[in-house]
Design goal:
The chain starts with 6 loop residues before the first strand and ends in a 6-residue tail after the last helix. Strands 4-3-1-2-5-12-6 form a seven-stranded mixed beta sheet. The N terminus is likely disordered. The chain is 44% helix and 15% strand.
């Protein structure tokens, strides 16, 4: 999610009253102010097989000293993006028998998201969210991966469910992206998090090339800037927290952002005219969760396995927040006098042509050793997962139909999560 969730996790070790200081970052981050580990928590050791029960994990942690993880989020308690962390905290603490503690600090952050990779690699934090396209010089492959997200279905359900498996498989189809992280001393926990596709949220109706010409559109990445220029608009850089005021003052006309981001930041009433395209996707940020590689290797195997296994909770709750936020944003837009509209044919054609050029650029980038194979693998994976999702019963619906019919309890994510772990995540489980 492109909204800067300042969720900070801090790894520390303690015995008795030993306490470690809190560090912080922006994005979901797990931070450590302590580098040592206690003897009973030595690295490696025996792990547990996949499918081990909660009782098995509790028993494995029985003789270990506590490990404290401190997390920080920019949102208040109970807010959708905070619930993601709260549920993860509850799961990890329960499955470790209370031996792994997660302390959550709300509405705060100490390191900007664009510096998160350095903060993790230098030990300021142990792991957290990074956005590779914020630093394309260090992460040319990761930036190419973000651009490749435009191969996903531009739909609220199928597109959101496609994102993680398709982009994870693309990540692991080449050594280039993994090597970029390793070169900075980073270990991947989740190569990408679920993501919702971006939309144009505008203060007035803008669906044709004539209406978009000259509009000031806030973007967050290079691919978004190129898409906006292809539509005749002007891309501008503006942090999300300034969008509300920018729309009120008229210094910006639209934002290319996810609906969840717009909903969390709260500017939908000022930009209730939402524009999507059913044929082509707008660019979207890709977030990865990575560890300080040295710290990751210091952890007991069973702790690494638990953190990996319970990342399913992060994925499920993030997806839930994403879907809930999408519906709420659309409902808010309608209440404010707006609606979800499709790009007119002329604008849709221009966007499609630009997306083809962007994918060609990925194929030719120096960041991927075999760009053609990489982009083709992503396209093939997107087609495969569209088929899988259809077989599992997830329907490709429009944004308007989604908002009218979506009910949280009626959409069962378990079949999707089971297949995701079977096809993609199980091969990455620590051993």
């Amino acid at each position: 999610m492109e909204f800067e969730m300042r969720m900070n996790f801090l790894w520390s070790t303690r015995t008795g009253v030993r306490i470690c200081a809190l560090g912080a970052i922006a994005g979901l981050s797990l931070v450590s102010a302590c580098s040592g580990s206690v003897a009973s928590n030595s690295s490696g050791g025996e792990g547990l097989p996949a499918g081990a029960t909660q009782e098995d994990f509790v028993a494995a942690f029985a003789d270990m000293d506590e490990i404290t993880l401190t997390t920080q989020t920019a949102a208040p308690p109970g807010q959708s993006v905070s619930v993601v962390t709260e549920k993860y905290k509850a799961a990890v603490e329960a499955w470790s028998g209370g031996k792994i503690k997660i302390d959550i600090t709300y509405s705060s952050g100490l390191a900007p998201l664009d510096r998160a990779p350095t903060a993790i690699s230098d030990g300021t934090m142990d792991f957290g969210y990074v956005v590779p396209q914020y630093d394309p010089a260090r992460f040319p492959g990761g930036s190419a991966l973000a651009t490749t997200s435009i191969v996903l279905e531009p739909s609220p359900v199928v597109g959101a469910l496609q994102a993680l498996p398709v982009l994870a498989e693309a990540t692991y189809s080449t050594d280039d992206i993994v090597n970029e992280f390793e070169a900075m001393g980073l270990e991947i926990l989740l190569p990408v998090m679920p993501q919702d596709g971006s939309v144009l949220a505008c203060s007035s109706e803008r669906s044709s090339l004539d209406e978009l010409r000259g509009a000031q559109v806030r973007v967050s990445g290079e691919e978004g800037a190129q898409q906006v220029e292809a539509l005749g608009a002007t891309p501008v850089s503006m942090v999300m927290s300034e969008m509300f005021e920018g729309l009120q003052r008229g210094t910006v006309d639209c934002s290319m952002s996810t609906l969840l981001s717009a909903d969390v930041v709260g500017f939908v009433p000022q930009a209730p005219h939402i524009v999507v395209d059913s044929e082509s996707a707008f660019g979207s940020s890709v977030n990865s969760i990575v560890f300080n590689a040295a710290r990751w290797q210091q952890l007991p195997t069973v702790a690494r396995q638990l953190l990996h296994d319970q990342s399913r909770v992060l994925v499920e709750e993030y997806l839930q927040a994403l879907l809930d936020g999408t519906k709420h944003a659309i409902d808010t837009a309608v209440e404010a006098g707006g609606q979800v509209s499709e790009l007119d044919r002329d604008a849709s054609t221009a966007l499609q042509a630009e997306n083809e050029a962007l994918i060609k650029g990925v194929a030719e980038t120096d960041g991927i050793s075999d760009g053609n194979a990489f982009t083709q693998a992503a396209k093939d994976s997107a087609d495969e997962w569209a088929t899988i999702l259809n077989e599992l019963g997830y329907e490709d619906v429009s944004y308007n139909d989604f908002a009218k019919t979506y009910e949280r309890d009626a959409l069962d994510l378990e079949p999707y999560l089971d297949r995701l772990w079977e096809n993609v995540m199980s091969a990455r489980r620590p051993s």
